[in-house]
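We store chain and fold; example below:
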Amino acid sequence: MNGKLIFSLIGAIFMLILSIVDLVSFGLTITTVSTIAIFILFSYDLYKVWKLKDQKSK
C-alpha cells in the first residue's frame, strides 16, 4: 500500500512537470493532452489510496 502511494505521488509530480514543459514548448498538442490525462489518472489513484487509508484508520 505504501509503495503504491509513493509510486503514484512520483508519477503525478513527473506527469505534471512534463505536461507543463509540453504546454510551454509545443502548445496544446495531443501529447500535452495525453500527458495531462495520465496526470489526472495518477492523481485519482492518489485520491483513492488516501481515501482508503483514511477509512482504515477510523
Q: What stands out?
A: The longest helix spans residues 30-57. The chain has one domain: 2-57. The CA atoms of residues 45 and 51 lie 10 Å apart. The helical segments are 2-26, 30-57.
